[in-house]
Amino acid sequence: MVLSCFAAKRKPIGLKWRASSWAVTSVIALGIAVDLLVYSTIIPIMPFHLEKLGFHNVAGLTGWLLFAYSGGLVLSTIPIAMLSERYNARKTPLIIGLVLLTGSQVMLMEAPNYAVMCIARVLQGISSSMVWVVGLALLCDSASPSMVGLQLGIAMCGLSVGLAIGPPVGGILYSRYGYRGPFVFSIAATILDLLGRLLIIERKDAIAWGYDPAALPKPKMEEKEETPSIAASGNLSVSSHVDVNDISATRDQESAVSELPPPTTQVHLSLLSVIIKLFKSSRAVAALFIIFAYGVVYSCQEPAIPVHLQRVWHLTSLSVGLVFIAAVVPTLFSSPLTGYYTDKKGAEWVTILSLFFALPWWVIITIEHKLSLFIVVFGIQSFFTSGVISPLTAELAAVSRESEGVGYAHVYGAFNLVYGIGTTIGPIIGGQLFDHLRRGWLALCLLAAGLLTVCLILAFCFVGSNPILRRLRDRKIQDAHLEP
């Protein structure tokens, strides 16, 4: 019935490039960038805006605004993931999310009081869950399994781009045009994102037109062997109007499609069944805990950094935004780099090395010496800490492919849920520690270092199809058998 419906319509213009995995990856990267831009624009400006409105303990109040965003994300993640996988809906939820995002920004821009600000941030969190759950599922639908790590890494560049643009632009526009300036810019970025989402074509729709973006063509040697057999079969002659090369390419496409997982989950599981399956997978549990810890570590410093920089080095909102550029730019390279090596070496090595090299910088950043030292350390710390996201998202995609009935929307719904919980409690912890402890900055940095240490142990034991601990144990057993 679906095929007959498509037959009655004209083939979409630019089907192959609009449905290609690279087009989808680019649009999802843009969506993540816009989402993080909207999220981070208020970080350098909100403490100063709340001070103008007469509030005190602004680090804590900013933390509650970030909490409201993450709370909306957490509450909406499960229904969005289940509905997206049940009805195989990808593009429509993404568009609905952008409409909601635009409305929430207008509400926050015109908010008459703090309570309305919190409601607007909850709505922004709901729209964010559309991008992370449905967007990453759409990307994995369209990407070949052999390249999913790289393309997830490229998409995750959007996280770094959004964080690189949001705080400095927010600081500049706030200092020059007032409170509404940053929101006008973020609404314009949202409209650009909407155009991209309207442009792409889902894999299920592309397959109905005979094109699978996730299929890889066969090697040329096989093409040369198959082409003569078609002409020799007697069904086609050389003088036929049908091009033999086109038919060979079509067969290659059909063969490649058959080797890939279907575009929809064949077995529909209940929410409880999905949760049980994920909890039975040590790979999934380890990956999700590390993502949760990353959310806590990443967000606990956000409400404290502007006030810390103001107290120690007397920076303004504009200067704070510029500091965020120096810290976030290195992460533009870490996501695709770790995604590429995940495809080559496996998620376990990339995750362990990223965590190991991130740890010392969380201690060094507590030194209150020179601003230049803080900026350099902040950048290196962000580079290695953010490097865990690409291998862990690829790890969850692998879990989905190995678990019958567990779709990409399910695993990325779980990803979004634990990350959202982490970013929900992170700003509260960071804001309260910073406001109420004499050495608050030191306390939250040491908390982050402790969490990353736990994550390093879990990655060593459980991450990857063949974790490092299991390899060492197997090698020890093998060596014991070889001894005389």
Automatic annotation (TrEMBL):
The chain crosses the membrane at residues 21-46, 58-80, 92-108, 114-140, 152-175, 181-200, 284-300, 312-334, 346-365, 371-394, 406-429, 441-463. It comes from Agrocybe pediades. It is a multi-pass membrane protein. Keywords: Membrane, Transmembrane, Transmembrane helix, Transport. Residues 24-467 form the Major facilitator superfamily (MFS) profile domain. One of its GO terms (cellular component) is membrane. This is Major facilitator superfamily (MFS) profile domain-containing protein. The keyword RNA-binding does not apply. It is found in: Membrane. SUPFAM superfamilies: MFS general substrate transporter (SSF103473). GO terms for molecular function: transmembrane transporter activity.
